[in-house]
Amino acid sequence: MEPISFSSFSLAAILASLPVNGEAVRQPTITTHISPAIAGQWEIDLNSTVTMTKEAKARQAASKDNKNIKTDEPKMDAGAGLLTQDEKRIINIQPNTNKKLVASASKSNQCRELYNFAADNEMWSVSGKEWTYGRYLVTHREEGLPIIAIKTVYDNNEVDCSGNQIDQTDEALIAFLNHDGNQMQWCTDPDGTECFMNFNRILP
């Protein structure tokens, strides 16, 4: 698990928006609560690259011209007509050998990165031999995706799935949270156009 920081938000900025002890709150500007929707165990899809949320993909698809779509299917001339069954023609289509075939079953010894979000704002994660413990907070805003802030309290400083050995004790991670059923993404922007982590729910 590598540390990631964003300049647009900081844990201090979120905490600064909360009232100090004894201060009366007349009109709240930010709403925070534990999100029971993400409580449970999640596994990071380590094979995924930077992606977008479904909503961002739909917006992008609507704005793009679909004429530039590449296909491996053979093209037919307009004057070729349709083949009938009695023409006894054979179309010779060569397989595309440029693409690698990947087995669908995961190897049993594959490195797994698991995140556990408890209902009391506690979080612990396991990545290879590394395990961390921390606290998390989900903040819902008026517009855009909610924000998740995670503060690491303890890191055993072992090697993680990416081969890194970094002590993340006292580090904070802040991301925009997109949650949809058993899928979750962490993104760098409130619209979900750049998401850097994809999660699948393992346990409720």
Description:
By secondary structure, the chain is mainly β. The protein is built from 2 helices and 9 strands; from the N terminus they run H-E-E-H-E-E-E-E-E-E-E. The protein has helices at 11-16, 54-63, and strands at 31-33, 40-44, 113-117, 122-127, 130-140, 147-155, 172-180, 183-187, 195-203. An 8-stranded antiparallel beta barrel has the order 2-3-4-5-6-7-8-9. The longest helix is centred in the N-terminal third of the chain and has 10 residues, at 54-63.
Topology:
Layout: H1 11-16, E1 31-33, E2 40-44, H2 54-63, E3 113-117, E4 122-127, E5 130-140, E6 147-155, E7 172-180, E8 183-187, E9 195-203
Antiparallel strand pairs: 1-5, 2-3, 2-9, 3-4, 4-5, 5-6, 6-7, 7-8, 8-9
**Radius of gyration, CA atoms, in whole angstroms:** 24 Å
Share of helix among residues?
under 10%
Give the helix tally.
Answer: 2
**Largest sheet features:** 8 strands, antiparallel, barrel
Our estimate of the beta-strand percent is 25-35%
Structural class: mainly beta
The ordered H/E elements are HEEHEEEEEEE
**End-to-end gap:** 22 Å
Strand order in space, largest sheet: 2-3-4-5-6-7-8-9
The mean pLDDT is 74
Number of strands: 9
* Shape type: globular
Parts with pLDDT < 50 across at least 5 consecutive residues: 2-8, 76-93, 101-107
